[in-house]
Amino acid sequence: MSENGPVTRSAVRSQSSADPAAAPRSSGRARKGPRLDAICAEAVELARAAAVESAGEGQVGDHLEAVPEGDRLVTHLFECLMPGYRGWRWAVVVTRVPRSRRVTVCETALLPGPDALLSPSWVPWSERLEPGDLGVGDLLPTPPDDERLVPGYLQSDDPAVEETVWELGLGRVRVMSRVGRSECAQRWYEGPHGPQAPISRAAPPQARCGTCGFYLPLAGALRNLFGVCGNVYAPDDGQVVSADHGCGAHSEVLTDIASPVEELPTVYDDAEIEPVVIHPPEGSVTDSDSTEPYGHG
Ligand code: SF4
Q1: What separation in Å is there between the alpha carbon of 231 and the centre of ligand 1?
Q2: How many A from CA of 146 to the centre of ligand 1?
Q3: Which residues line ligand 1 (CB under 6 A)?
Q4: Domain housing 92
Q5: How many angstroms separate the CA atoms of 95 and 254, rounded?
Q6: Is pTM, for the whole model, over 0.70?
Q7: Which of 39, 80, 182, 216 has its CA 20 to 30 A from that of 148?
Q8: C-alpha dihedral over 223, 224, 228, 229, to 10 degrees?
C-alpha cells in the first residue's frame, strides 16, 4: 500500500482504539461534536486524487466542504459531474495517526446530497400494477380485503343480483361491491366507449346505443347505463358501451338509398358485316406461295 493509499474503515478503527488519546474521556461532561482536524482538512488534493481514481477523469467537480467525522477523521465532499447524478457528491474520508502529519485515505463513496436526484422509494408490486399488465398465463391474486369485492353471502347492494341469487340459492364466493361497481362504471363511461369517444361525437345525435338493435344490456344495476355492442361492423363490437355512446353503424341509421338502375341484357348487333381488306407487309408469305422443303430426308 502506498503511503497515502486507501485503508479500510476497520483498520482506521483499530488504529484509533489503540491510541489512548483517542479514547473517550470520562470527564462527565457531554462532548461536543468532533473538531475539524486542520491537517486532514488541508488534504484536499489527496482526497481529490482518490475521488478521480474511483470516478475517472472529468467526473469530479469542485470541492464542496470538509466535514469532521471524529478525531482526526474528515470527509471531503466533491461535486459529482457524472450524467444522471445531479446533486450527488463524491465523499472521500481521510485520517491520520496521532502526532503524525501523514494523511491517508480511508474510503471513497458516491453519496446523495440534500437536493440529489433520487429514485422513488420502493413500491410494492400490487401498487405498481397497471391495467393491461396481466399477460397470457399470468396469475393475479386478489387480496382478501379488496374493496371492489364483498362476500357473496353479504348483500351486494345490487337488487337484481340479490333477487336472482336468493331465489335460486346460488351465489359466487365474492361479488362486486358498490365501490367496485362505481369505479368500474366511471372508468367505462370516461373511456373510449363512452359518450365522449371521437366516434360517438361524430355520429348523428340520434344514433345512440340505447336505441340500437345491436345493443345488449348488461345484467344487474349496470344495465341502466351499459350494454355490449353486438354489431360486427362497429368498431365497438364485443365492447361494453354506454347507452349514450353511438356510432354510424346504428341499426336505425337511415340514408337516402339511390333507386337501383335496371340492367338490360347485352345486345350484339351483327346484322351487317363489314369486310376488311388486309394488306400483309412486303415479304410476308401468302396462301398462293409454294411450300419450301424442310431440308431433311
Ligand atoms: S352499432 Fe354502434 S350504436 Fe349500435 S350498439 Fe354498437 S356502438 Fe352502439
Answers
A1: 7
A2: 33
A3: 207, 209, 212, 214-215, 229, 231, 234, 236, 241, 245-247, 249-250
A4: 9-20+33-112
A5: 90
A6: no
A7: 216
A8: 150
